[in-house]
Structure formats: structure tokens, C-alpha cells
Specification:
A hairpin with a 2-residue loop joins strand 5 and strand 6. By secondary structure, the chain is of the alpha/beta class. Helix 12 runs antiparallel to helix 16 and helix 17 crosses helix 20. It has 20 helices and 14 strands. Strands 3, 4, 5, 6, 7, 8, 9, 10, 13 and 14 form a 10-stranded mixed beta sheet that branches. Strands 1-2 form a two-stranded antiparallel sheet. A two-stranded antiparallel ribbon has the order 11-12. It is about 40% helix and about 15% strand. The protein folds into 3 domains: about 45 residues, no CATH class; about 110 residues, no CATH class; about 260 residues, no CATH class. The protein starts with 6 loop residues before the first helix and ends with a strand.
Length: about 525
């Protein structure tokens, strides 16, 4: 027989007519047009299994003609083949793997008392015929609870339990098998919805975030924001846009992190005060636990106390928020950053510290890197992310951002460039080298203004780090402004004729330009 048999071929082999084969295939989720259509070998194999189970009437039996055929007696189908259980032991000693294993054990427990979950005898027969074991009434309760939240075709009602959610030539998996192997109902519904190409059922938004469900991620638009970030060119004039797009990605995971913090606090309240919050109750029902007792205690123990990590991730995003609000951008070429990290060119002085209390540093290269820093009376905190990490951000990965927060101190030589500390050291060194040299300013775009009160532009300042040869070109006269600009607070290498020495002083922020003229709002990007 060919690799992909036709419907009439497999029907002939099984001893049934083509119309019956088409009907059964349709009930199995395989929609074929005619007896001459081909089907996958896996579908043919399931058709044979169904025939052997007695679900399909065989032509070999002495069935009367269509006009004389009497209704077939109701036949209780055999249960599905033994479910494919996950390993009986955790995949590793990692706490997350141990907790996942314990959640599977909670789902796979024995519950023979169907009345405890409010099932009538008729409902019990319906669910057991669909494949739910007699001693696992909580599996049916899980499915029943999941149906209350949506009218999606992917609801876990009895007729859907035998539908495949994994179609593989070597091993397929049905809904009931996934449930019996220890998966929660939210993930099973999402997998079934993907198999049927329909929207997943709507569970509570908070519950989806707790379970890390794909439906919750899609609702945040996270992947679209990541794509928008990756599409921006990292030219100096575009760096403010890069920073805004990066922070837009981080903001998308803030609701997820806050929900995790609240959820773990609610679980801790149950452990201490035996108070069950609505979110924890929904989480328990998704894992087949409907009553307060040992099973709920065991499920509560699988929720690890990561609140400090989740809160640290929120703190990191707050650092990025503050850094962007300062609108102070610097850019280091990768070669310059590496050379300044590898060999300290100058010793740091108090006047040559970071150019602003808060800001963002970009480092070119493969991958490129962003460093966010913010200062407070207790010191300067910073963390870094690569462009690859931002463009492929997931809620799960975002929970680890807080571990990257470091406290910057100008305490000397650091070779490791995988952290924010040596990169900020390199920025300080580059700034020290350029304090005694001029800069060349280039506008990031054509500046046009009419009657508006404010204009936005990007001004890029190129700072040479090393002395340049003297030029014979005469100095150009100053440009008379026809607009106002806000000059930031900045250092100046001031010359004092009385002592014939230079001294770095700090100039406070001020505005210059004719009164009443439009104000030019500039994002300044300093390139080293």
C-alpha cells in the first residue's frame, strides 16, 4: 500500500464501506472530501484501532441493506489505550522540576467518590465512556470547571477528550491522555485549540499569567513589541528610539510580574492562615483540587517562594524607567569599549564620574548592549541587556532580570565585559579622555519649525578620545540662534589665567536663545 493510503483503500482493507470510513474520520477530526482522498498513515492507524475497539460496524458482519438496516444497539466503547504518563521521578533536582513533579502527582491521585464532586450517576457514565477512569473523578471535575469560562470549540467536554492534540507519525496523544499524564487544564485547552486552529478558551487573565499560558503572552502584544525593537537601526540618531522600544518590551511583562508577586503572597496566606483567595482557588481547580485538605496543602507547597526575585525584576524595570526619563544617552563603539576595559588608560578622578545621575549607555557590537543606570543617595545601581535578549523576551525570562542589578562603584579594573560594571568604567574613562578635547555636533535630522511652541530633534555629539593634529582652518564664528535651547548641566574644563591651570567645573542647566522663539527639545546622544 502507498505511504498515504486513499480512503476507499483503507475502507476495503478494514471491511467497511467508504461512507462509513468518511463519517468516522470526520468524527476523529480528519476532514476528507471523498473516498479517493488520501489520509495520513497515523489517521489510518487510528481508524484500525477504532474498528478493533468495536466503535465501527464491520461490513464482514451480516448487516442488512441500507433500506432494511435496523438501528445498532448502543455499545459502550472501550477506554483509550493506556495513557503516556510522564516519568515517575523529577527530571532533575532543580526545585522547579521537583515542584512540577509534585503537581503531576496531585493530578494523578485516586478519587473514586464521584458524588464528592457533585456528579450524578448519568454524568459519571458520560465521563467514563469518554475515557475518564472510574477512580479519577477529579479529572472530570477539572474538565467541567474549564467549560464554565468559555464557549470555545476547545472546551474539555466529553466529546473532545478523544481528540488528538499531538499528531505524530510515531506517537499521537489525545486530550484524555494529556490530562492523565498530569497536565493542567489550561495548557491542555491551549494545545487542543492550536490543533483545531481556534482561539483558546478564556480563563482568568491572572490565572493565565500565573500558569505562563501562551494566551496571556499573546494578549500583552509582547512578541510584536519585540519585533518592533529588533527592526530599529542602531545608528546614533536612532538610539533614543531604541531605548523607548526596549522599555516598551519591558513594560509588557510588568503585569505578569506583579501577578506572580500577588499570587505567591496569597499562597503564603493560605499556608499561614488557611485563607483561600479566588486566584489560588482557580489555580487549584486547574490542577484538580476542589477541597481544602492534604491535596491543597501539597499543591501549595509546589508554589516556590520567588517573590524576592519577581520584585527584583520589577525594580530593574523601574531603573530602566528612571534612566529613560532622564533622556541622557551615550554610545560607545565596541572596539573603544573593549580597549578601555582591557587597559585602564587614565586614573579616575572625582570630576570624571558618570556624565549624569541617570542615563542609558549603548555599546555597539555583536551583540549590542544597553546599560541602564540610576543614582540615589545610597549609590548608583545598574544592569545591562543585550539586543538579542530584548528582541526575544519572554515573561519567564523576564523574571531573571532582577538578578542582573549591580551596584556601581569606581573601584578599579574589571575585565569581564558581560556585566554593566566594566562598561560603565569604560564610559567614565572615555569621558575623562574627552574632557580636554572639542566635539563635533551633527543634527540627527533636518530641523524645521513654524508657529509651534516646541520642536523635537536629536543632536549627536562625536567626542574624540585622543588628541588630534592641529588644523590650519580658521575657527568658525558662532551661530546666532533663531530658537531657544535648553542646555543641560555639564562639565567644563575651565582655564584660570591667574594660575594658568585648567580645572573641571560643573555648569548648571540653563536656556539660551531669543525670548519668545520656539523651544527646541533635543535628545543629545554623545558618541565616543
Amino acid at each position: 500500500m502507498a505511504a498515504k493510503p486513499r480512503v476507499h483503500e483503507i475502507a476495503s482493507e478494514l471491511g467497511i464501506d467508504s461512507k462509513t470510513a468518511l463519517r468516522i474520520l470526520k468524527e476523529m477530526g480528519e476532514f476528507v472530501k471523498s473516498p479517493s482522498s488520501t489520509i495520513e498513515p497515523a489517521a489510518a492507524r487510528r481508524l484500525r484501532v477504532a474498528l478493533e475497539a468495536g466503535i465501527i460496524p464491520s461490513r464482514a458482519s451480516s448487516a442488512p441493506r441500507k433500506s432494511e438496516r435496523s438501528p445498532l444497539p448502543a455499545r459502550k466503547p472501550k477506554p483509550p489505550r493506556p495513557p503516556v504518563f510522564r516519568p515517575s521521578s523529577p527530571s532533575s533536582d532543580h526545585p522547579e522540576d521537583v515542584a512540577a513533579h509534585q503537581r503531576r502527582r496531585v493530578i494523578q491521585r485516586s478519587e473514586p467518590d464521584w458524588s464528592r464532586f457533585g456528579f450524578s450517576e448519568k454524568e459519571r457514565d458520560t465521563w467514563t465512556r469518554a475515557g475518564v477512569p472510574e477512580d479519577m473523578a477529579h479529572i472530570a471535575a477539572m474538565c467541567r470547571d474549564s467549560m464554565k469560562r468559555s464557549e470555545s470549540p476547545a472546551r474539555l467536554f466529553p466529546a473532545n477528550l478523544r481528540k488528538p492534540i499531538v499528531e505524530d507519525p510515531f506517537e499521537s496523544q489525545m486530550v484524555i491522555e494529556a490530562l492523565l499524564s498530569g497536565e493542567d487544564t489550561i495548557r491542555v485547552q491551549e494545545r487542543l485549540a492550536a490543533r483545531l486552529a481556534v482561539p483558546p478558551p478564556a480563563a482568568g487573565v491572572e490565572l493565565l499569567r500565573v500558569l505562563g499560558a501562551a494566551a496571556s503572552v499573546a494578549a500583552t502584544g509582547l512578541y510584536g513589541r519585540c519585533s518592533a525593537f529588533a527592526a530599529i537601526d542602531w545608528s546614533p540618531a536612532n538610539l533614543p528610539k531604541v531605548a523607548e522600544a526596549a522599555l516598551d518590551v519591558l513594560r509588557a511583562v510588568v503585569p505578569h510580574l506583579r501577578t506572580l508577586v500577588d499570587f505567591e503572597s496569597q499562597v503564603e496566606e493560605y499556608r499561614n492562615e488557611r485563607t483561600v483567595s479566588p486566584l489560588f482557588a482557580a489555580f487549584a481547580r486547574a490542577h484538580g483540587v476542589f477541597h481544602v485538605g492534604d491535596d491543597l496543602d501539597a499543591l501549595a507547597e509546589t508554589v516556590l517562594d520567588h517573590r524576592a526575585s519577581f520584585q527584583a525584576a520589577l525594580d530593574a524595570i523601574a531603573i530602566a524607567e528612571t534612566a529613560l526619563a532622564a533622556r541622557h544617552f551615550s554610545h560607545l563603539h565596541s572596539e573603544a569599549a573593549q580597549s578601555l576595559v582591557d587597559s585602564r588608560v587614565v586614573s579616575l578622578s572625582p570630576e570624571s564620574l558618570l556624565p549624569a545621575p541617570d542615563g542609558i549607555l549603548f555599546v555597539g557590537g555583536a551583540p549590542s548592549r544597553l546599560v541602564f543606570w540610576t543614582s540615589s543617595p545610597t549609590g548608583t545601581r545598574c544592569f545591562s541587556l543585550t539586543n538579542d535578549e530584548v528582541s526575544s523576551m519572554t515573561p519567564h525570562w523576564a523574571t531573571a532580570i532582577g538578578a542582573r542589578i549591580e551596584r556601581w562603584e569606581p573601584d578599579g579594573y574589571r575585565r569581564d565585559t558581560s556585566t554593566a560594571l566594566p562598561i560603565l568604567d569604560a564610559l567614565v574613562t572615555a569621558r575623562e579622555l574627552t574632557l580636554r578635547h572639542g566635539s563635533r555636533k551633527v543634527s540627527g535630522g533636518r530641523i524645521e519649525h513654524g508657529g509651534g511652541a516646541e520642536i523635537k530633534a536629536v543632536v549627536v555629539s562625536y567626542r574624540p578620545m585622543y588628541p588630534t593634529l592641529p588644523s590650519d582652518e580658521p575657527s568658525r564664528p558662532g551661530v546666532k540662534l533663531d530658537h531657544r535651547v535648553r542646555v543641560r548641566s555639564h562639565p567644563r574644563n575651565q582655564f584660570y589665567p591667574s594660575t594658568k591651570e585648567h580645572k573641571v567645573i560643573q555648569i548648571e542647566s540653563y536656556e539660551k536663545g531669543p525670548q519668545g522663539a520656539p523651544l527646541l527639545l533635543c535628545d543629545h546622544v554623545t558618541v565616543y
